[in-house]
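Batch manifest line 118
LIGAND: protoporphyrin IX containing FE
JOB: complex structure
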Amino acid sequence: MNYALLGRLSVIIFGVVLLPYVLNLINRKFFKTKNKSFFKVVKFLRKLHKPFGIALIVLGIVHGYMALRSFRLHTGSLFYIAILATGFLGGSFYRLKKKELFVWHKRLAAGALYYLLG
Ligand code: HEM
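JOB STATUS: finished
ARTIFACT:
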């Protein structure tokens, strides 16, 4: 497994982590379906959210180290910092159930997406 492959895998995992939110958003705005199978898929993806989020944090550091063997500030490391903070806030929200933490979890997820595309 080389660092480039690991990078691509991380992007796919990031997509899976975001997918339940994106699917619900699209459904709320456009389709408004109440189809049971749709919600089953979203529920399944929600189950993957936490383990995949944690996997992203682990893979990101391995990928970054393999690519650079050092630390430099660039969109990749900024993306990683955003992922790390997002995961930390997600975990904190899960434990403490404070609404603010969830709001920041989502804000930083949007920030991570920005660095990924940027
Ligand atoms: C690291 C990448 C992560 C990203 C980009 C991310 C992003 C998001 C987003 C956009 C939502 C909103 C879902 C919605 O409103 O429907 C969400 C929900 C949530 N996230 Fe994360 N998340 C990440 C990792 C984690 C981790 C590591 C944990 C916990 C260990 C976590 C825990 C949660 C919880 C508890 C919710 C709300 C309930 C649920 O949808 O399951 N997240 N996350």
